[in-house]
From TrEMBL:
InterPro entries: GxxExxY. It holds the Pfam family PDDEXK_3. It comes from Algoriphagus locisalis. This is GxxExxY protein.
């Protein structure tokens, strides 16, 4: 199946729902690694395919540079999911997910902060790029 903006948006909704479920059971205030493991379990239980701790290749002037740069999740090879457990999301975390989107040529990204009272209203932000815009125009 060729991905469309609508199918990617539906998948985003499922991912955010999984994060809300994890947050509902654990609440805020734990380490990011705890939420990471629990979100992986929740995605698996929903039969959503993903790669965890995916190493992102960096190409520099024809060379592949081993940087050990990792994204938390790449879901269905379409959506980058970065999770945090911080009091506030600084701009560097937003820049990080935008860079991951572009390096992986993924059309959409979701930045989730578990250290909030309500993930849906205050704990998630989505990002799109040119790959998203090109989906329905091809």
């Amino acid at each position: 199946m060729v991905p469309t903006q609508k199918s990617i948006d539906k998948l985003s909704y499922q991912i955010i729902g999984a994060a809300i479920e994890v947050h509902k059971h654990l609440g805020p205030g734990l380490l990011e690694s705890v939420y990471h493991k629990c979100l992986a379990i929740e995605l698996e239980s929903r039969e959503i395919k993903f790669n965890s701790e995916l190493i992102i290749p960096i190409e520099y002037k024809g060379h592949i540079v081993d940087t050990q740069l990792r994204c938390d999740f790449l879901v269905e090879n379409l959506i980058v999911v970065e999770i945090k457990s911080v009091s506030e999301i600084p701009p560097i975390h937003q820049a990080q997910i935008i860079n991951y989107l572009n390096l992986l040529k993924a059309p959409k990204g979701i930045l989730i902060n578990f250290n909030v009272v309500n993930i849906f209203h205050h704990g998630q932000k989505t990002f799109i790029n040119k790959y998203y815009e090109l989906l329905d125009s091809e």
